[in-house]
Amino acid sequence: MTAQISRHAIGKYRPMVTSSAVAFFPMTYGPKNPPIAAMVSIRALMVVEPRSAKVHVAFRPGQVDPVDRGSAGLAILASLPAVEGERAEVTEARARGYAVTDGEVIPSVLGVSAAIPGRRGDALASVGVSVFEMPDEEALGSAVVDAARRLGSLLR
To answer: At what angle do helices 88-96 and 71-78 cross, to 10 degrees?
Structure first.
């Protein structure tokens, strides 16, 4: 599945694609709270990079980032019910179906991620792409959402 999104993204964004596909899952939970409500960080599970890109800026498997920074975590948060005080980007991602960030994890790198639907309709993972430029955000967002849905159906 990630290879398919990679090929789609590379076709439109070569050679600017960095990490073609990244799957994230929640890792660390805060004390005394239910797991979902207390999610504080995510870990990169799988990374696929294009071999032909001239520049590689990549996430590494096992990399840990705060859940509220970067498109991967924001996509997961957007799949949850709205909470008071959440970032505007989470609300926007919920309405759009995917999260977009600019330089939140790696300077100058744009991220587009969508939550992977789980068995019970919850989302405990996301898939996304990282690029240096995004001439057609809607097309890339749509491709990421499609990949997330297809991956979710394979995991059920």
So the answer is: 70
Q: How many CA atoms lie within 13 A of 51 on its CB side?
A: 1
How would you write the pLDDT of the chain (156 residues) with one tens digit per residue? 333 343 444 344 332 333 334 455 554 444 444 445 456 888 787 777 777 777 777 778 888 888 899 999 999 999 988 988 999 999 999 999 999 999 999 899 999 999 998 877 777 789 999 888 899 999 999 999 999 999 888 877
pTM for this predicted structure: 0.77
Among the listed residues 5, 4, 34, the one whose alpha carbon sits nearest the alpha carbon of residue 98 = 5
Phi-psi region of 32 (alpha: psi -120 to 50; beta: other; left: phi over 0): left
Tokens linked to 36: 């979902």
Long-range contacts, stretch 110-114, CB < 8 angstroms, 24+ apart? 110/134, 111/70, 111/71, 111/72, 112/71, 112/137, 112/140, 112/141, 112/144, 113/22, 113/24, 113/70, 113/71, 113/72, 113/74, 113/75, 113/144, 114/75, 114/141, 114/144, 114/145, 114/147, 114/148
